[in-house]
Specification:
about 200 residues, alpha+beta, six-stranded antiparallel barrel
Length: about 200
């Protein structure tokens, strides 16, 4: 993660909340055959752990139970040209981004745990897509669900450390940060631009 303290999240809880809201991780593990990575949606567990599932045929699946893993969750990122700053001749290009890394120990879930992970995944994301009629497992034929369940394996990661970078130009003057946000928006990178715009100050 970036060493500049200006780019830190407020707390571990803030990093985990952001990672869960982002919802998708690269799962990295060191194996006897070298480093491997898989990709999966993540959800929080009631005990503070993180859960995910992979296709049963994923080459990392037989190696994950008991393994030390890193979940890498990446957010919006983009190139920042000095031309967006007030005084470009005194600046260099950079790259702004948001990212969180979660270290932990993975363990395989039983069938009940896997079903709970799938239910949590739907409960987390369905309301923002179909708030009036979100999908739930109750809408599915149970025999079909059980058949499809056999194709995936669930895991839970007990967290041992969290790191994050929230690099959005906080070390730059306000006019440079605004200029970069406007430049990003014009170039089509709206998500990163929105994160870089200063939060309006509330007045009483």
């Amino acid at each position: 993660m970036h060493p500049n303290q200006a780019f830190r999240f407020d707390s571990d809880a803030a990093m985990l909340d952001w990672a869960v809201a982002r919802g998708f991780a690269h799962i990295l593990a060191a194996t006897a055959d070298g480093p491997m990575v898989a990709h999966a949606p993540i959800v929080p567990a009631s005990d503070g752990a993180i859960r995910f599932h992979l296709a049963r045929g994923n080459r990392l699946v037989p190696l994950l139970d008991g393994a030390c893993v890193v979940l890498s969750v990446a957010g919006p990122d983009g190139y920042i040209t000095p031309n967006w700053y007030a005084d470009p001749v005194r600046q260099v290009p950079t790259w702004n981004y948001v990212a969180v890394e979660i270290d932990g120990i993975a363990r395989q879930l039983d069938e009940d745990g896997l079903i709970a992970q799938l239910d949590a995944l739907a409960a987390l994301h369905e309301p923002r897509i179909f708030p009036d009629r979100p999908w739930t497992r109750a809408k599915m034929d149970d025999a079909r669900f059980r058949a499809m369940l056999r194709a995936i394996i669930g895991f839970e990661v007990t967290i041992t450390a969290v790191r994050g970078t929230n690099k959005l130009g906080q070390n730059k003057p306000l006019e440079d940060r605004i200029g970069a946000a406007e430049g990003l928006a014009r170039s089509g990178d709206v998500a990163l631009a929105d994160l870089m715009r200063p939060t309006p100050t509330r007045t009483s």
